[in-house]
Structures are given as C-alpha cells and as structure tokens.
Write a structure and sequence with these properties.
The protein is 40% helix and 16% strand. The chain has 449 residues and is α/β, with parallel strands linked by helices. Bound molecules: pyridoxal-5'-phosphate. Pyridoxal-5'-phosphate is lined by residues 117-119, 122, 151-153, 225, 229-230, 258, 260-261, 286.
C-alpha cells in the first residue's frame, strides 16, 4: 500500500495533467482521489464528496455498477484481448455492434466503427466523411464547419474543429479547411441577441453566408454537439439543430452529431439528436458507452453513407483506418453491461426529472447571488456562469471561482470549474436528495462572497 505522503510528494511531479499548465499543477497540486463508490468520491484525506461531475460526463451509472464490473472481470478471464483488423473478430464486439445498431436505429444509424474514445470517434467521422465524398466522386468536398463554442476532442482533426482557441492555439497550424460559425449562446454572442429563437436564426444565417462564401460544393460536413457540453452547456433553441439539418440538406452537406456527452440519456432523451427531432448522417459516441469503466468509443454511420462505401468496388471503399483497441472484447463486454443497465434503469427519464429539479434550484441561486450571471441546463448537464456582477457580465476571475469551488468541495460536493463556469454533470442515477445536496452546497459556496 502506497503511503499517502508518497502520493502528496509525487503529485503532479512526474506526469502532466490534461487541460492544465504543468507549472500551475506543481504550484497548486490536484486533489488526490483514492476511492469511489455509488455516486461519491473520496479524497486522500478521507473527505467524501458527491461527484457532481459524474467522472467526466461518463460515469452515468455511478461507481458501483456490479454488472459492468462482473462483465469486465469475466471477459478478462475468458479473453482479455482480440483485435478486429481484417480477417479476425470477436464475439463481444459482434454482439455490441448488434445492440448499438438497435439502440441508434431511431437516429438513422446502421453501422458502427469501434474506437478507443471520443477524440478517436470524431477523427474517424471526419475521415469517413472525406472517404464518402471521394467514393461519390466529389473530391472537392473536404471542408468542415463547426460551432465556435464546440468541443470535439484533442486529435488533430477534432482539435481543429474545437471552437475555443485554447484547444488550438498552442498546436497550430491545425487541419486546413475548417471554419466556425457563432454558437447559439444567448448570454454572449456577436449579435447581442438574447432571444434564443432569433439568435438561432442569426447563427443559421451566418452558416448560409459561410457556405456561400466557401462554395457549397466544397463543404464535406457540419459538425455539432446537440447541446454544447464542455464549452459551457449551451442549450440551443429547440429549432436550431433542425434548421441546421435543413441547411445541410439544401446544400448536400453531411451532418455529424458529436454525441460523446449527449448519447445514452444525459439530455433526458436517449440521444441529443433525438431530443431535437433530427437524424444526422454520422454520430460519435464514447464516455457513457462503458460508464467510464473502460476507454471505448464508436462512430455510427447512416445507411446512405454505409451503402455508398459498401457498394464501392475499387480501393476507395477500403477502410484504411482503425485502432489496436477497435472492438476490444473487454470494452465491448463493459459496454454490453452498461447498455443493459442504462436501459433497465431508464436513465433518460431520471435525467429529465432530476435535471428539471436541478435547473430550478440553480435558477433560484441566480436570483440570490449577483455573481451568478447565467444558468443553463437540460437533463443532467448544467452550467453556472460566474461573473463579477450581473450588470457588467464581466467574467469572474480565477481567485473568485476557486474560492467558491473550495467551499463547495468542503460542503461535500464536487463540481467542475472550467474557466468562469461551474459545470454540473452528475451520474444519471442520482436522486432528488442528491440534487438538493448539490444545490445547497453551491448555495453555501456562493454565500461566502
Ligand atoms: C463532445 C465531445 N467530443 C469529443 C470528446 C473527446 O472525447 P475523449 O476525451 O474521450 O477523447 C469530448 C470529451 O469531453 C466531448 O465532450
């Protein structure tokens, strides 16, 4: 057993943490978590907190899901690894492909390509889209358009799609031919427009203007999260994604729905696309696919795209793409168990009800504290945007955010501080009492200002 002093002494000394400055981590080392159970995590000091981050939008079934643990354990004993490159496959990957086809059939998805996580799934989607257009003989269709606040992972393609320059700037040049339009973010947008429906319309107009300036026959796909997650939980007007679909159809552009966060019930529907009544051409999934118990993702492909590639009879249809862990049997076993539990517990319905309670509670806090500028949410994804003052909307500084954050932790709730936002994305198994606990810990946190 490693002594806790060893952990403290070596914390952030030998590995670089994602999405952080290494020097900051050395100066202000991260919280060491050593245990997790049900919906709670415990730090090295023995302090227990309700995990209102849900791992990282992925531990939808909590940390004590016995069926997933058993499935992983059984699979490790039967066959811990098997590749799925040409000429070989495994039973669990086949079974999972069947289940995923069933799960996403309502979204128009017919085929699955297994990946190792969300970034893989997005880059797979981008590559398959370019391949599709080559198979169709439309070689000029290579460009992508995305939302300015969107997050699509950290591989070169996905990072180039990210709307926030923090994820691109230090690594540029990125993939060429990628453009952004304003996100339907009512609190801050270039149009100074607070009405969600009018804002949605203005964003759509920007899209059409961009398509026309680039040449519609050069655009391969539009990429969006049905609800922007990491970019600050931006819930668009209900018409937004449907209108994006219409514009894509008008110009023959494919629509990629990045469902890495939204899929499997988080929004209160089984997928974000279904929430808005849209059928995309490609969907990307990861995170809750295995409940966070194993790194795995997938790219889902509609009938139109799969038909074109399957019917191709020259080398353009060959999938020169794949990962060592595409269809890993342990991941597939974990996913099969996670899907069964997700379905059995009807997590989408719970997310919808608990999410409504959470949003109500957060909005009450907004009326109480002038530093809460905006509250956004749908299902069990929510954000509080912290400002210096509601009048000025000036984003709160790091010190203010971390002071509140610390108090919330001390009150027994872990939220995620991202810039001047608190992001709340708990497991989908939480109860009304858990929601009350989150709101009351935040209340205490904000009361110290
Ligand atoms: C919408 C979205 N797409 C892609 C990714 C990348 O997933 P991963 O971190 O598993 O590579 C994320 C991660 O948060 C995400 O939120």
């Amino acid at each position: 057993m490693i002594h806790e002093n060893f952990l403290r002494e070596n914390n952030a000394r030998h590995f670089w943490h994602p999405m952080a400055h290494p020097s900051e981590m050395l100066e202000n080392p991260p919280m060491i978590i050593t245990k997790a159970e049900n919906t709670e995590v415990q730090n090295v000091d023995g302090h227990t907190m309700l995990d209102a981050v849900g791992g990282l939008w992925n531990v939808n079934l909590g940390y004590s899901c016995e069926p997933i643990k058993k499935a992983i354990n059984d699979q490790l004993n039967t066959m811990p690894y098997c590749n799925t490159f040409r000429g070989i496959t495994n039973d669990k990957a086949i079974e999972l492909s069947y289940k995923l086809k069933e799960w996403f059939y309502a979204d128009g998805m017919e085929k699955v390509f297994f990946t190792q996580g969300g970034s893989d799934s997005i880059d797979t989607a981008m590559r398959l889209v370019r391949q599709f257009w080559k198979v169709k003989g439309m070689n000029d269709r290579v460009k992508f358009i995305a939302l300015s606040k969107g997050y699509h992972g950290t591989h070169y393609g996905g990072a180039s799609l990210c709307g926030d320059p923090r994820f691109r700037r230090n690594y540029e040049p990125g993939v060429p031919g990628i453009f952004h339009i304003p996100a339907p973010y009512t609190y801050r947008n270039p149009f100074n427009e607070e009405n969600p429906e009018i804002l949605s319309e203005k964003c759509i107009q920007s899209l059409e203007a961009l398509i026309s300036s680039q040449g519609s026959d050069t655009i391969a796909a539009f990429v969006m999260e049905p609800i922007v997650g990491s970019g600050g939980v931006i819930v668009p007007h209900e018409s937004f994604m449907r209108k994006i679909r219409q514009i894509c159809d008008k110009y023959g552009i494919l629509l990629i729905a990045d469902e890495v966060i939204c899929a499997f019930g988080r929004t209160g529907e089984w997928t974000g696309s279904r929430l808005w009544g849209v059928k995309p051409d490609i969907m990307t999934i990861a995170k809750a696919l295995t409940g966070g118990y194993f790194p795995m993702g997938a790219t889902l492909i509609s009938g139109e795209i799969s038909d074109a590639i399957e019917k191709n009879n020259d080398s353009l249809g060959m999938l020169g793409h794949g990962y060592t862990n595409s269809g890993n049997p342990v991941g597939a076993a974990a996913a099969l168990a996670a899907l069964e539990e997700t379905n059995k517990l009807n997590l989408a319905t719970n997310a919808k009800s608990r999410g409504a309670e959470l949003l109500l509670g957060l909005n009450k806090l907004k009326t109480k504290y002038r530093v809460i500028g905006d509250v956004r949410g749908k299902g069990l994804m929510a954000a509080i945007e912290i400002v210096e003052d509601q009048e000025t909307k000036k984003p709160a500084n790091k010190d203010l955010v971390s002071k509140i954050y610390k108090t919330v932790c001390e009150e027994g709730v872990l939220v995620r501080a991202s810039g001047n936002n608190f992001i709340i994305s708990p497991s989908l198994i939480i109860t009304k009492e858990h929601v009350n606990k989150i709101v009351s810990a935040l209340d205490k946190g904000f009361s110290i200002i």
